[in-house]
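Sample 1 of the test manifest.
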Amino acid sequence: MNEFQILKSDITQSRIIKSQLNVDAPLAAGEILLKVDKFGFTANNVTYAAAGDQLGYWQFFPASSNETDTWGIIPVWGFADVVASKAEGVDSGERVFGYYPTNSYLKMQNVKVLENRLIDGAEHRSKLPPGYNTYRRVATEPDYDRSMDDMRMLLWPLYITSFCLWDSLQHNDWYGAKQVIVISASSKTSIGLAYALAADTDSPTSIGLTSSGNQKWIAGLDLYDKTMNYDALEEIDATVPTVIVDMSGNSQLLTDIHAHLGDSLVHCLNVGLTHWSEGGKDTGIPADKREFFFAPSHIQMRIKEWGIEEFDSKSSQFIADSSKRSADWMKIVRLIGVEKLADIYADVCAGKLPPEKALVIEL
Ligand SMILES: NC(=O)c1ccc[n+]([C@@H]2O[C@H](COP(=O)([O-])OP(=O)(O)OC[C@H]3O[C@@H](n4cnc5c(N)ncnc54)[C@H](OP(=O)(O)O)[C@@H]3O)[C@@H](O)[C@H]2O)c1
């Protein structure tokens, strides 16, 4: 029973270690033991590591054999099956979608059992965003289709963000912009946003900005109105009011775009860190023109305003449609065991995986 861990001080370093979780120990009241079946892994998971300290991602799943607190576990989205339960209404065999550690088992504690959801009430997770502690009981979903598990665990966390980004942009009247620049345009979260922008006749012109190596591929999907690459920023029309949606976190790139656009840059949503090793420096974008966009907060806000049913139905339709379209280009690479993830992890950190590839790790 191996656990995949990351060195917090240098997230390119990882190790495989034997998990200290005793799966044979009797459960206390309110506990559930789940066996992780499989999970997805993309740049989003590397971002969890890069932002592990600032945003608390290391706190979800405490690492084994970690007396000096130097190692952390990256959370992943996946499916698990209940193998033992002391929570009323939850039986062995039930399948659950949600947030898991990169090892074979998760023990939930103090579980709140709802009709469609389980909430892990473990003390160490109590201050973390509720969306990450909530698990879907897929047997209660009328449309659940197990053959879609891979697409769901890979794309749901990304496309729900794409939906929220589109929702936020249109809710804010696009900040008055006439063009939207999506940076790291070949990432799946960006592609989801491109689907949403293309479907919205009121949306401004979309520009997908990407690396020169990925430009041809993303242009071939024909989702953005224009595609450009990081070496040709001068081709961006700087006379047009522009909103940036940034998945890259690349400080120099943002500095250069800001310098090029000047006052035409009306707003910047800082969403991701795909270029995590290029981040952290001041970009010169004034504080009142930029904001950190955190999908779990947007979701909570909309659930409060719309109610969970309405939010679910609006976002699910978008995610289902977008996932269906993604099956045309996404190529799933299947790995068996966390050891195989460890073998490829450095390449994922370095951005060496082609954008169409998506990792599924089966345990
Ligand atoms: N704030 C939120 O709530 C939220 C929610 C979901 C996702 N996100 C963020 O959105 C971002 C995209 O995630 P994803 O899973 O959709 O990504 P993905 O599909 O795995 O993205 C792959 C793309 O990212 C770029 N990339 C990845 N690693 C790189 C590296 N080391 N150096 C340079 N470029 C690299 C490349 O795009 P280019 O060549 O086009 O740059 C690559 O094609 C992540 O940072 C994720 O955390 C944020």
